[in-house]
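Dear H.,

Thanks for agreeing to be a second pair of eyes. The structure we're designing against is below in token form, covering all 335 positions.
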């Protein structure tokens, strides 16, 4: 039943000849109280709970493993029909952010990403995605969710949008869209659907503003050039509460030169946005090396001087392979 909308629940209770208000009760149990079984829905009659249990289950499944970083970050492992995905809980003062996965592996093949090197092994259903949020021990304490884990969200757009609806609907989690960010390498069809159908924040994995160079790092550039991605984003309004940001991992001698600063400033000119600079965490069998701390500061300062808001993202969970670009269950899959 996880990831069913209120309208879908209304249809179910109608077909089972239950009172219409039962749908709202079920939704409250699923998304407000976040129960893991139909038997826990105690304001439903025993007969109705039994009737529901004959055809449905909540579909919530606890993670099978947790790894804890010295900085408090936790990486959770979930099993999905014999495959595995990871999500990461990042505590930061009063904030508690969960980074969720949308696919088992990834098709995008970015050369600096462990998930991309794992290959693609299947889509996660809306219930599989929502289960990561629902079933971590910190579920009720979460303040933010970012779709930045394993997989490309807009290669699984229907299921991602369904989860966003549950997160932001009054009958669901009733979260403000400001609490949710979805990241993409720039798959334009799914991105446009998201921008039209949701008010959640957008993050774009940019990493190089020069098309030819970006194509060597990120195969998606060939089908969806970053210049066109930004052109499409410019059609939408980001001057209010909704935000767009660009993720930029700095590699020594690859994308950290003055020409990259200049190209980035030109690419993002006139767009209300932020650039998040990310430290590279070494991935086996990649040709890249992370830029030095001094170079990252220089790159940030150059962007800021030219009117582009740029910050250096704090690295979290590297010791448990939970930091940006490190999520992979390849070894588990090969067992």
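And this is the sequence the design step returned. I haven't edited it by hand at all.
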């Amino acid at each position: 039943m996880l990831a069913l909308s209120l309208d879908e629940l209304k249809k179910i209770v109608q077909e089972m000849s239950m009172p219409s208000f039962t749908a709202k009760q079920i939704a409250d149990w699923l998304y407000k109280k976040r129960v893991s079984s139909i038997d826990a829905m105690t304001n439903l009659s025993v007969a109705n709970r039994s009737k529901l249990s004959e055809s449905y289950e909540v579909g919530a499944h606890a993670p099978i493993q947790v790894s804890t970083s010295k900085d408090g970050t936790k990486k959770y492992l979930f099993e999905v029909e014999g495959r595995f995905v990871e999500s990461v809980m990042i505590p930061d003062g009063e904030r508690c952010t969960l980074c969720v996965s949308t696919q088992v592996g990834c098709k995008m093949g970015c050369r600096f990403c462990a998930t991309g090197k794992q290959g693609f092994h299947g889509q996660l259903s809306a219930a599989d995605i929502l289960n990561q949020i629902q079933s971590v021990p910190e579920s009720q304490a979460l303040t933010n969710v970012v779709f930045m884990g394993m997989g490309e969200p807009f290669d699984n757009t229907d299921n991602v949008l369904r989860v966003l609806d549950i997160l932001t609907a009054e009958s669901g989690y009733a979260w403000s869209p400001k609490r949710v960010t979805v990241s993409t390498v720039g798959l334009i069809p799914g991105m446009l659907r998201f921008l039209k159908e949701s008010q959640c924040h957008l993050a774009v994995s940019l990493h190089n503003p020069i098309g030819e160079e970006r194509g060597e790092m990120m195969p998606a550039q060939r089908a969806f050039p970053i210049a066109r991605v930004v052109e499409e984003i410019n059609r939408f309004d980001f001057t209010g509460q909704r935000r767009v940001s660009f993720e930029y991992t700095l590699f020594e001698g690859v994308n950290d030169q003055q020409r990259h600063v200049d190209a980035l400033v030109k690419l993002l000119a006139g767009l209300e946005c932020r650039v998040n600079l990310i430290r590279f965490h070494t991935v086996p069998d990649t040709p890249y090396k992370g830029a030095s701390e001094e170079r990252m500061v220089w790159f940030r300062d150059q962007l800021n001087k030219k009117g582009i808001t740029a910050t250096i993202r704090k690295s979290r969970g590297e010791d448990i392979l939970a930091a940006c670009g490190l999520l992979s269950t390849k070894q588990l899959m090969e067992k």
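Two observations from my side: The radius of gyration is 21 Å. The longest helix spans residues 293-305.

Warmly,
E.
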